[in-house]
Design a protein that fits this description.
Layout (H helix, E strand, L loop, with lengths): L5 E6 L3 E6 L3 E7 L7 E6 L5 E7 L2 H12 L7 E8 L3 E5 L1 H6 L10 H16 L3 E3 L25
Parallel strand pairs: 6-8
Antiparallel strand pairs: 1-2, 2-3, 3-4, 4-5, 6-7
The structure holds zinc ion.
């Protein structure tokens, strides 16, 4: 078994993002200075986010994100440039659309849109993308087995 290549980037003092193979966002840690607990969010291949139980520290939170990610296969999203009247040319990603991730960035010019959508998709959703003529969606993510119960009113 090859171990996954995991990296953690810290943003400011209170937030970290966990990446798989440098390109796939698999989780977010929130570690406020005045709170001993670490809040843990897992990001599935579709970009959908799930709350995992809070962890005692950053390594603990990172571990539960890695454990959750082992049950999924991460692949780039297939995207296309679409025309969204009246706003302009933008990203059509059926995977993000199904996961509920909004990709609101528009360009007046189709060529400019084609040059930028892959990078912009990654910024907005956390997953890499490939530009194709007829994008096919990844299947929707089921919650990981270590997630909180799925209905919102059950979450803490
Ligand atoms: Zn997408």
């Amino acid at each position: 078994m090859t171990l996954p290549n995991i990296t953690r980037f810290q943003y400011g003092r209170e937030k970290s993002r966990i990446f798989l193979n440098d390109i796939h966002l698999i989780g977010i840690l929130e570690h406020p200075c005045d709170d001993p607990e670490v809040r843990v969010t897992f990001c599935g291949p579709s970009g959908k986010r799930f709350a995992l139980p809070a962890a005692e520290d950053i390594p603990g939170g990172t571990s539960s994100i890695i454990v959750a990610s082992l049950g999924y296969e991460y692949r780039p999203h297939e995207i296309a440039v679409g025309y969204f009247a009246p706003r302009g040319y933008g990203i059509w990603c059926p995977t993000c659309h199904t996961a509920g991730t909004s990709l609101h960035r528009y360009y007046p010019d189709q060529t400019e849109a084609e040059q930028r959508v892959v990078t912009v998709h990654e910024d907005l959703c956390g997953q890499p993308a490939v530009l194709v003529t007829a994008p096919f969606p990844l299947s929707p993510d089921l919650p990981p087995s270590n997630a909180w119960p799925t209905t919102d009113h059950d979450a803490p």
